[in-house]
Amino acid sequence: MILFDQIIFGPVISRRLGLSLGVNLLPIDAKICSFNCIYCECGFNTTMREWPMPKRPQVRECLEAKLRAMTLEGRLPDVITFAGNGEPTLHPDFEAIIDDTLELRDRFCPDAKVSVLTNSTRIHKVSVYRALRKVENPILKLDSAFDETLRILDQPVGRLFSVAWLTEQMKRFEGDFIIQTMFLRGEHEGKAFDNTTDVEVEAWLDVLDQVKPRQVMIYSLDREAPVKSLQKIPVIELNRIAEKARVRGFNVSVAG
Ligand code: SF4
């Protein structure tokens, strides 16, 4: 599995976002997340944490230095993306760090967007919600409309997480957000799953109808996952699912 060993990483060409400069707010030697997805590129959650989460001034300094260097190179990012070794909204200063980032973005690369890849587990927190409403691309995860499938795929750490709860929370974004969904089939701990079946896709579309995201990003496995019995969904199938969502009026992008 690959852990990001820096606070600022890249830039990399992202399948979904363009030239993306990454920000990792988690420790650089461990993965910490409120989900424990069976497909996570960073592997399963770790408990060892020699390095703490980076402090707000440290993040600001590193980001400023990188943007300054990129300005000198004449190669500015299309997007500054919060991702990294786990769930970025777990950082206690998440909102303040977003404020710093927006300020630096305005100074160095005003055309760049700020994206946050979040698993949606903390969008009920006032400051997390506020921060996500400030960035151009809050990208919220919804891997299934069924609690049972979601528990297998995402393995939420908290017991209270449910699709009904998530649906209500997503409605608060008033349509100004993006949904990301990982499509996958396979088996884990003796349980088979497949979130591409007609029943799954119809229920997923029904949730989209309720929460009305301005964009939907669907994708399948790209890199090595901690569970080996996972099957990548071919692009042709992803396109079929995307078409169903487009028929319902959604703007959908597919990354194979
Ligand atoms: S939400 Fe993201 S970081 Fe967390 S386990 Fe899932 S894929 Fe990994």
Helix content: 25-40%
At the fourth CATH level, what is the homologous superfamily of the domain at 8-180? Aldolase class I
Within the CATH hierarchy, at the fold level, what is the topology of the domain at 8-180?
A: TIM Barrel
Distance between the termini: 20 Å
The overall pLDDT average reads 93
* Cα shape: globular
CATH class label of the domain at 8-180? Alpha Beta
Structural class: alpha/beta
Question: How many beta-strand elements?
Answer: 11
Which ligands occur here?
A: iron/sulfur cluster
- Give the helices and strands as they follow along the chain: EEHEHEHEHHEEEHEEHE
What is the rounded Rg? 18 Å
* Physical arrangement of strands within the biggest beta sheet: 1-2-3-4-5-6-9-11
Low-confidence stretches: none
**How would a crystallographer describe the biggest sheet?**
8 strands, mixed
Question: How much strand content do the residues show?
Answer: 15-25%
Specify the number of helices. 7
Looking at the overall shape, the CATH architecture of the domain at 8-180 is Alpha-Beta Barrel
